[in-house]
Amino acid sequence: GCPQNSLQENPEERCILCNICVRACEELGSSAISLIMRGTQKRVATPYDEAAAVCIGCGTCARVCPAGAIEMTEKEGIRVIWNKAFAMQACSRCGSYYASREEIAHLTARKPEYVIQSDLCEDCRKRMMAEKIAVFVSE
């Protein structure tokens, strides 16, 4: 068989330095991560590899990473990313955790007109909208 690939053991080694995660974080207005070092030591990280105060724990960087190099874990209402733990918001309808509280506060402050039913997860927001449309169509 094939020898085991060491890149699969350490997610940081999977990074292809495409900078997509850094740009996504900048677009959200956080700029919590950046490319640091030079040459073969170059990598994506938070300042001084410590929990960045400006990180909102949204996980956008992990979702856009084409190499799966950014680790994010969610367990029992806590999301951990970039050496920082975030309390998650539970959906008021189904109870599932869907976003960090910092993320919701950041998005509400930045674009209040886009935050619709911020106490609901995406699935429940879609269901609620479908229910409203169904009532409207049946009238």
How would you explain this protein's 3D organization?
This protein is of the alpha+beta class and 139 residues long. The chain has one domain (6-138). The protein has helices at residues 20-27, 60-64, 101-110, 122-138; strands at 34-36, 43-45, 72-75, 78-81, 84-90, 97-100.
Secondary structure layout plus pairing:
Layout: H1 20-27, E1 34-36, E2 43-45, H2 60-64, E3 72-75, E4 78-81, E5 84-90, E6 97-100, H3 101-110, H4 122-138
Antiparallel strand pairs: 1-2, 3-4, 4-5, 5-6
* Rg result: 18 Å
Low-confidence stretches: none
Shape: elongated
Structural class: alpha+beta
Proportion of strand residues: 15-25%
Overall pLDDT: 89
Count of beta strands: 6
- Total number of domains: 1
- Strand arrangement, major sheet: 3-4-5-6
What is the chain-wise order of helices and strands? HEEHEEEEHH
Strand count, sense and closure of the main sheet? 4 strands, antiparallel
Helix content: 25-40%
The number of distinct helices, counting runs of at least 4 residues, comes to 4
Taking the alpha carbons of the first and last residues, their distance comes to: 64 Å
